[in-house]
UniProtKB/TrEMBL annotation:
Lineage, top ranks: Bacteria, Pseudomonadati, Pseudomonadota, Alphaproteobacteria, Parvularculales
Signal peptide as annotated in the record: 1-19
Name under which the protein is recorded: Peptidase M61 catalytic domain-containing protein
Record keywords: Signal
Organism: Hyphococcus luteus
Domain of life (superkingdom): Bacteria
Length: 442
């Protein structure tokens, strides 16, 4: 009997110990303070010597996160780590996060003022890492200022508790007073400062472009997308469009006086850029794999597919479509003439190359196989599967769909090797694509 009681007690102790280990590794409570200031509280399941995050370019955290006394930010192995100066472990951390001073280049903005006292939060920059540099298992509590809304995907609540993205991926969450607009296709948060003509274009363009994209890709997004549209006055002669896309979400920030009244230049930028961001919602079905393939693969294709959509909607005629391709070729040559490879362009800050040269490759491949870039991406999504895609997978599919491994090799060299005369290499790529198209037409 005593042995039975001992075993029962041991089992109970083991179960209690296991129970203490059940649950997320951290709870992150993000509360909006007046304006776009956030109070962020980390409650860790176990005491740790530090909390690691993916590094943000420009030392954003060091400059704009207020840490409690005795804590500091260190850089280690490509990560930023918040730790105590005395090296002691801790389970709780309370900090204050402010918006960046100016837009962070080629980064999701961690904290962005949005509309009338609202804020758009990118959870990825608040999400800790494991020792293996993967994102930890966490839950979020997201609370707007009193009377506000917490909006993410299909959720619109006074606060979000025990929240995790339905996409298992970092996400945008809006905290603030604006009431979202929900349609059959999307849930949108629109800043009332946005000029009325832009809002009307947005309401027309989104359902029309989504319908075309669904037809081209053969499917609609599984999760109702979130769209965020905001505007700030800026300078009178300024025309700035900043967009960011995530799985089932994208946000648009307009800045400058040129947006104030309808005009052809602003309308053209809005249409092309918004459709580009919408394309990313469908591309998200094929995520980059662990090898971290170059961004030109999806950014350039988004430009090329956006051109196909605008032509299908009747917004562009053949001349406009061809002019857009010529612009991509010119811009690509100029960027690569700066002494970088395409694969090395991002590290050097030549971001335009990712779009222009990626567009060049997408257009050349489409021409070579006698199909559209959307057709290629439909196959690419199927090929990528749950493990995501790699750069080599892209070249393999180019070889398969064009029937020419040499052409795929030329595309690979165009991306990876320094080009002495970029313009001539671009012309050569299109000449080879044209020859394959003619051969296929025989």
């Amino acid at each position: 009997m005593m042995r039975f009681l001992f075993l029962l007690s041991l089992c109970a102790a083991l179960l209690a110990a296991c129970a203490r280990e059940v649950g997320p590794e951290a709870r992150i409570a993000i509360t909006q303070r007046p304006g776009a200031v956030l109070e962020v509280v980390y409650e860790l399941r176990r005491a740790q010597p530090g909390i690691a995050f993916h590094e943000i370019e420009g030392d954003y955290r060091a400059a704009r996160w207020d840490l409690p006394p005795g804590f500091e930010i260190r850089k280690k192995d490509g990560a930023e780590v918040i730790a105590r100066r005395d090296g002691a472990r801790f389970k709780t951390l309370v900090l204050t996060a402010h918006p960046a001073q100016g837009r962070l280049p080629k980064e999701y903005q961690p904290v962005a003022p949005y509309g009338e006292g609202g804020v758009l939060v990118y959870t990825g920059h608040f999400w800790p890492l494991t020792k293996a540099q993967a994102r930890a298992d966490v839950v979020f509590d997201l609370t707007p200022a009193p009377g506000g809304h917490a909006v993410a995907f299909g959720d619109n609540a006074m606060a979000l508790h025990d929240w995790q993205s339905p996409m298992a991926h970092p996400a945008f969450v809006y905290l603030g007073p604006l009431e979202p607009i929900e349609t059959g296709a999307v849930m949108a948060v629109i800043d009332p400062q946005t000029p009325g003509w832009i809002v009307e274009e947005f309401k027309r363009l989104v359902p029309e472009s989504f319908e075309k994209l669904s037809a081209m890709f053969g499917a609609a997004p599984e999760t109702k997308p979130n769209l965020f549209l905001a505007a700030v006055p800026g300078k009178p002669a300024q025309l700035s469009y900043a967009g960011d896309a995530l799985p089932a979400q994208f946000q648009i920030m307009l800045e400058g006086g040129v947006w104030a009244k309808p005009n052809d230049q602003a309308r053209g930028v809005f249409l092309q850029s918004t459709v580009h961001e919408a394309v990313h919602l469908w591309q998200a079905a094929a995520r980059p794999g662990a090898s971290k393939p170059p961004e030109w693969i999806h950014e350039g294709a988004a430009d090329a597919i956006a051109a196909e959509i605008l032509a299908a909607l009747g917004e562009w005629d053949a001349a406009a479509f061809e002019a857009d391709e010529r612009t991509a070729r010119t811009d690509c040559a100029r960027e690569l003439d700066k002494g970088t490879t395409l694969n090395g362009a991002r590290a050097k800050g030549y971001y335009r190359a990712l779009y222009a040269c990626g567009h060049v490759i997408a257009s050349a491949v489409a021409r070579a196989e006698g199909a559209s870039t959307a057709d290629f991406w439909r196959a690419f999504i199927d090929r990528a599967g749950p493990e995501g895609y790699s750069e080599d997978m892209f070249y393999d599919l180019v070889a398969e769909r064009t029937g020419d491994p040499d052409f795929a090799g030329a595309v690979r060299d165009f991306a990876r090797k320094p080009l002495a005369r970029p313009e001539r290499e671009i012309d050569g790529l299109f000449a080879a694509a044209g020859a394959l198209a003619r051969e296929r037409g025989r």
